[in-house]
Every structure is written in C-alpha cells, then in structure tokens.
Amino acid sequence: MINTLFLPELREMLSEGNLEELREFCTALHPARAAEFMEGLDNDESWQVIQHATPNARAEIFQYFEIDRQHELLASQDEVEVASLVTNLPADDVVDLFQELDTSRVDQILALVPAPDRRDIRRLQTFAEGTAGALMTTEAACLAENLTVRQALEQLSKQAERLETIYYIYVIDSTNHLRGIVKARSLVSAIGRPETKLVDLMQTDVVTVNVQDDQEAVAEKVAFYNLSAIPVVDDQRHLVGIITHDDIIDVMRQEATEDVQRISAMEPLSDSYMRTSFLTLSWKRGMWLTILFFTGLLTALALQYYNQELEKFEWLIWFLPLIISSGGNSGSQSATLIISGLAAKDLDRNDAMVILRREALTGLLLGSFLGTIGYIASMMLGQTYFTGLVIPITILSVVTVGTSLGSMLPLILQKLGLDPALMSNPLIAGISDILGIVIYLNVAVLILG
Amino acid sequence: MINTLFLPELREMLSEGNLEELREFCTALHPARAAEFMEGLDNDESWQVIQHATPNARAEIFQYFEIDRQHELLASQDEVEVASLVTNLPADDVVDLFQELDTSRVDQILALVPAPDRRDIRRLQTFAEGTAGALMTTEAACLAENLTVRQALEQLSKQAERLETIYYIYVIDSTNHLRGIVKARSLVSAIGRPETKLVDLMQTDVVTVNVQDDQEAVAEKVAFYNLSAIPVVDDQRHLVGIITHDDIIDVMRQEATEDVQRISAMEPLSDSYMRTSFLTLSWKRGMWLTILFFTGLLTALALQYYNQELEKFEWLIWFLPLIISSGGNSGSQSATLIISGLAAKDLDRNDAMVILRREALTGLLLGSFLGTIGYIASMMLGQTYFTGLVIPITILSVVTVGTSLGSMLPLILQKLGLDPALMSNPLIAGISDILGIVIYLNVAVLILG
Q1: How do residues A316-356 score in pLDDT, each as one tens digit?
Q2: Which of A112, A204, A209, B106 has a Cα at 20 to 30 A from A268?
Q3: Which of A245, A306, A356 to mutate against chain B (most B CBs within 10 Å)?
Q4: B245 touches chain A (CB under 8 A)
C-alpha cells in the first residue's frame, strides 16, 4: 500500500525548487516515515528529495527505502552523490548493497569514497556471509585507556555523530587491543568526577565474539547476555568492529524462518519467497520431497508383502491412511517440541530419559483416546466388538511409538552431529509409515487369525 | 553442566568471611559469569555471596541466576535483603518474578520497598500479559524540554546509574507528555555547545507504542524501525515507560517458538517443555490430534465408498500411502513458505495470483519428476506400460493440487481473520488426504476401466 498523502506537495516542492520546505520534510519527520511518504515518487524524484537532507539524515532515510530501490539508486545516480551517501552509511550495510552491483560500478563509487572508509568497506567485503565479520560495523566508539572522564567526553563528542551507537564505549590500548568497556551511563554518571580515569570505570571481563564466529552463535550470545551491542575481536584480541542489536534482530528473524522451513522438510531459502527463483525454489523443495518419496516407496513394498492378509480382510484398508497419519502427526509434534527445546537451550541430551518417559506416557494417553474414537468408528463401519479391536490396539501402539521415536530422533541426530531440525520430520514420516503398516497388519493377524 | 572451577575458593571465602575477595569476585567478573560460577552453590550460599556486591552488581548477578533459583531466593531469604534487591531490579522483571510467589509474601516484600518503586511495581502488575505494559520498564531517562545541554548532562549524571539504558533521552513537558527524543550520541556531540536547549536537539516525530498494544506488534515495530528501545505512552500520550531491546529479543524468540509449534499442529506452550505439566501438554497436543483424527476418519469413509474398485485392482492399495503423503508433503511445504512470507511481511494478499501461478508451476514440475519415479516403481511391482500410468497421472495431479491448495489456504485463512500458522497444516493434511483418494480412484477407473 503506497502512502500518497504527501505526493502532490512533494512534487510541487521539487518543481518549484522549494529548498526550505524540502529540507523541513527531510528533517522534521522520522526517517522511516519520510521514506514511506516517498514510495510513490520515482527513483530520480526520491533521490532529488533526499539531496536536501543533511548527510546523516539522507543516509537514514535511504536505509528505509525498499531494498530494490536502494540497489537501483546506487546503480543509476551520479557517482559523486552516491559516494557521499555511501560514506555516511554503516559499512556493513554498504557491503550488503554492493553485492548486488556490478564490480565496475562498485570500483567507480569506491574510488570517490575517502580512503579510511574505502579501506573499511574493502576489509568487510573479505568476510564470508553468515560470520560475525560480515555482520559487524567498524564504527565503534573507541577511546584510549589513559584518558580521564573529561577527555573521554570531549573525544566522544567529536566522534559521536558518525557512530551508530555510544551505548558502550570500547577502551583500547595503543595497539588496538580491547582492554575493557565503559557503559555510556557510567561515563555520564562520572561527569561530577571529571578527572577519574577510564581505566577505573571500565569492566574488564568483556563478552566478545571472534570475527569468524557463526552469526547464529553471535545472536545466542547477545540474547543470553542481554547486550545492546557486542564487540568483535580477531585472534589476537584486536577490536575490529561491533555488532549492533538491529543486526542481531535480523539474524534471529532469518534463523527462525530457516528453522520453520527445515521443520517442513525444505532446504532454507537464502532470500525471500518472491526474490527466490523458480528453479532454486523447486530444487530446495524437490530434494526433500524426493527423499520422502523414496521412503514412501518402502510402504508400497510393505503393503505388497502383506497382500494376502489385505485380500482376506479388505476393510483393513479403509483405516490405513488414518493409522499412518496418527503415528506421523503425533511423532512430528514430539519432534517439534524437542527441536524447539534444544534450540532454546531448555533441553539437552542429559534429559533424554525424562523426555522419553514423558513422551511415552503422552503417547499412551493420546493413543487411548484416539483409539477409543477409532474403535467406535470401526463398529459403525460394520465390525464386531471383537474384530474392531484391531483398530484401537493398533492406534495405541502407533501413537506411542510415534511420540517416543519423535522425541528421541532429534536427540540422536544432534549427538551424531546432524541438524535435528532438518532431518527429524522426514525420518519420522518415513519410519512411522512403515512401522504403522507392520504393526497394523501384525495386530490384525493376531486378532483375526 | 555446572561449572565447578571456583566452587572450593568460593566456599572458603564464605567460611573465612573473606569480604575483600568476595567483593572482588562479584565486581571483577561479568555478572553472567559470576552467576555461572555460583551454580554449584546452594541457594543460601549464593545469596550470601551476592550480599558482598554493590546493590547494582547484586541485581545484575541475580538476573543471571536460573529462573527457579530466583523464585526460591525471593521466597526464602530475609525480607529486608530481598526488598533491597527488588528495588534495584527492573520493575518489569520484578512483576514477572512476583507472579510465582504467594500474594502474602509479595505484600510482605513490597511493604519494605520505597514508595515510588512500590507504586511502579503495583502499576505494572495491572497490565495483561502479552501487552506492551507488561513488557515495559518505568526507568526511562526523562528530562524536561526547557533544559540546556549542560543541565541535561548534570541531571542525567544523577539518574544514570539506576537506569537500564540512556541510549535515548525522553523529553517531556511538565505534565509528562512525551514531546520528543534526543539520542545520547546527539547530546554528547553537543557538549561543546552547552547552552543549546534540548528542545533544539530533539526529534519530535517519535515512534511509540500504546501501553495496550500486543507484544508481537511491538516487536515488529522495533525491528522495522531498528530501535534500541521504544517509548510506551497511554491514550493521552503520557510517557509511562520504555521497552528495551533485550525484552524485544525475548518476545521474538517466544513468538518464533510458538510459530513452529503452530505449524506442527499444536497449541503453543506458554512455558518451556520441562516446565509445562504433563496434562497441559497432552491437552494442547490432543486437541489438534483429535481434529486431525476426525479428518482422517473421512478417508476411511472415502475408501469404503471405493471398495468395489479396490477389490478389483488390489495393487492400487500398495501405492495409497505414497500418493497421500506426496500431496500432503508438497502442500505443507507451500503453506510453510507462504506463512513465513506473511509473517515476515514479504508477501500479502495482493500477491495471491502470482503465488498461485508459481506454486501450480512448481507442483507440475515436482509432480512430473516424482510421477516418473512412481511410474518406474509401478512397473517394478508388476504393472504394464499402460496400467502403470495410473500412478504418474495421479501423482502429478495430487502434487499440483497440494501446492496450489497449500499456498492459497494461508491467504484465505488470513482474510477470514484466522491464524494461518495454526490452521493451515491440519486443514491441508485433511483436504489433501481426501482429494488424494478421490483423484487416485477416479484416474484408476478411467484408465483401467
């Protein structure tokens, strides 16, 4: 939905060259709202509008443009203006944007960017996607350890406008080793004691991540320690950047979506649905559908094996899909509970016995209930009190096997170093289908003779 | 896994009453690590240790204790000490902790808490769980609009130690209406111009949430606007609190887990797996299993209806589970993709036609591939080139129907105001099972005569 409220005014300001009002529009509104009001403008118009903002405000508004518009603007607008914008964007965001541009265009822009910023961008480009290095920004508030509170505030005052956050101030020695952190609120609290040294205010036991760490591990650390930003260090504990809470929130969203896709037996997409090509999508789904299909073929073999029994008691077939799906559904519920428990670190492998007992009991309870409904249904479809017993006994067994198996498989897969989210549901579907058929027909032979 | 590294030393410090070293332990380490090293101590011992920390450090370490230990300590330790701790904890966390305590104990503790803190806690207790009010803390950095930068820093310096964050400074008028915000970094940048008024630094277009807003909507707003904290206002735009990024991260984790549970056809748990009672767990799972079971019973009726055909061509039964699960699996993949796209706001109902075309095409492609494998399998199980054709034709149809239906159902459910995550998979399983049987047997009759 495009917000057209301000469009006529914006176009009029542009055509009249009303600099005063354009500047007012860019600064008075929240940058996100300014970007929203510009959605109806074309790329050239919106670029013209933000040229009237201060460099900082321009960068902020730009970051709230739709991602496709951001790429198009970088690709098409005047290089000098683009380079000036790039200088004011967080370096980590620039690296992400550059991935979609031609290398020649990137080189052209970077040539116009001041050397220190260019170096930052070039360095960040070397880190592999999904690592702490690729998430971090280099604009951290860094101060030398021998400064006093008064000196620190003065230096900070000069740095502050170009920093993303001053929530934490990073205290470094002369060779850029991270020595400690000072919270902005501790520094501000100490204003009354201006000669206090930073070294006396700082916490030295700092939670850090290595530049090579996986982004999921980074997000977990930030969530566990309730941090607003986390410092990134290299193997020699040099401070190389910080990762801020907004990037962590993005990682958590991305990981949550990936988990949901894995649980539904699909390779996680690396982009949104609409931006993923038809063939990539088909491949990521087809892979697992094919694996599931082959386990499904085993059910065909199993049923062929029991052909004689099925011929003799035809009514057994009517309940076959019901029985198979009861086992699969209860098993995938159990697997999901354990997978999310493992992901949230509420559970670990030491809980295996408690989990198994709980899940087996749950299976017995749910199986008895569903079995009773099934028993009634079998009699409504013409079975006697005795022959109908095949159904509840089978359902009770299948559901209990389903919950027990569903809860244990993620733990076993994790122990084997495999991803429980990705493998559990296909495996459970396959195994519980086969077991369902085997249990069903053996119970039938036992009771019906 | 309990970290026993420091246990002997800690116990020795306690028995010797070595105040100096205990204080050192509580302040030098990161509070989370101090809490971790205390895991092996019993409740009384760990309480004694943290009595040697400063009030602030004590509160921080306490917040990293296991949640059960936090409850036990509040319930069992000396009221005066507990009340002093409570005064230093964020009010929103206190409210959460109090929910697990007897009301009489809560009253006893609150009687010893200073009146302003007590009022804050009492007020927060009135907000329903899952609303912005229940998430917020009242300790925001608030300053009057007519202050200068110098005055603001002085006042902030007095407030800072008891605040959770000074990332944003909230500018209010004399009746507590929110007038604007100043970022800490803007304030620090202006140190060189100490007579500047706050009113000239502040942004007036502030993103806020209402105290009654749902926590999921709050988390989305924070993520969209990349905020570190969001102010909470009442209907008259009085500032009543702020919600900080750590609470937002907790909400996002909780919502992600709930989505996964919904997608696996389960009522979301309100607590972790281990802390949820056996009966609650069985009820939340049993409800949906029963609904799925009743849709499964429809397959029994459908199969009974086609009894004659099944008697005539017995081999059809062998492929029945395979065909049903192919439709269900491909359908639930599509549904999951659309549900996560809707949740991430990448998709909306206006994309319905594009989605349907894509999904139908994906279904045709995947269906042809799986159908070919099925065709080969049918011949290996004794069918001719001609009779075996039943299998690929059915699979192609079932998979295409599955993907189309799976992608459209979440959109339809959302339009009807229902939760797509909760309803889609059970409905798809039910519908695709029945449709699978109907398509299969009609194709069979058509080909086999």
Answers
A1: 999 999 999 999 889 989 998 898 888 877 888 888 999 99
A2: A209
A3: A245
A4: yes
Mean pLDDT of chain A: 89
- Which chain A residues touch B343 with a CB distance below 8 Å? 257
Sorted by where each starts, the structural domains of chain A and their CATH numbers stand as 7-128 (1.25.60.10), 142-259 (3.10.580.10), 278-448 (1.10.357.20)
- Is there a contact between B120 and B110 (Cβ–Cβ < 8 Å)? no
Strands A229-233 and A239-244: antiparallel
Averaged pLDDT for residues A382-393: 94
β-bridge pairing B142-144 and B239-244: unpaired
pLDDT of residue A2: 58
- The pLDDT of residue B185 is 84
pTM of the complete model beyond 0.95: no
Are the CB atoms for B138 and B120 separated by under 8 Å?
yes
Nearest residue in A to B304, CA atom: A318
Contact pairs from chain A to chain B, CB under 8 Å? 348
Helices (H) and strands (E) in chain B, counts: 22, 6
Whether residue B171 is predicted with pLDDT greater than 60 in this model: the reply is: yes
A184 interface with B at CB cutoff 8 Å = yes
Q: Is the ipTM of this complex over 0.85?
A: no
- Provide the chain B residues 56-115 that lie in CB contact (below 8 A) with chain A: 63
The encoded tokens of residue A36 equal 């929203």
A186/B336 Cβ within 8 A: no
Query: How many Cβ atoms are within 10 Å of A267's Cβ, its own excluded?
Result: 17
Asked whether the predicted pLDDT for residue B1 surpasses 50, the reply is no
User: Residue A195 in 3-state DSSP?
Assistant: coil
Angle at A179 between CA A178 and CA A185, to 5 degrees: 100
User: Tens digits of per-residue pLDDT, B284-319?
Assistant: 888 888 988 998 899 999 999 998 888 888 899 999
B285, B266 contact by CB (below 8 A):
yes
Contact criterion met (CB < 8 Å) for A153 and B272: no
Q: What is the DSSP string of B116-164?
A: HHHHHHHHHHTSPTTBHHHH-BS---EEETT-BHHHHHHHHHHHGGG-S
- B369 contacts chain A (CB < 8 A): yes
Answer whether B150 touches A (CB < 8 Å): no
Provide the pLDDT for residue B371. Answer: 95
B206: chain A residues, CB-CB within 8 Å: 30
Residue with tokens 């508004």: A61
Separation CA B98–CA B83 (nearest Å): 12
